[in-house]
Amino acid sequence: xxxxxxxxxxxxxxxKEIVVLLENELYHLRITxxxxxxxxNIHQEIRRKMLDLTITNNELEHCQSVIERRMSQIKKxxxxxxx
Length: 83
Known about the structure:
The protein is mostly helical. The chain has helices spanning 3-35, 40-81.
């Protein structure tokens, strides 16, 4: 495999880890918000985490798209070897 493929694999793995962390942080913020529903700081932090989560999910989707395209190219090359 080439260096670019490895880079996207690493980024996808890292993005998955970050998604899990952000979801966990959001869960705890929402629990805290139940006890303090008018706390603007918690609302702002939830919005910030949601934005981070959206950005990270977009990065993950991009990495997965690049990886899938690369795997498709490899599959085509392998199929052409036998014809």
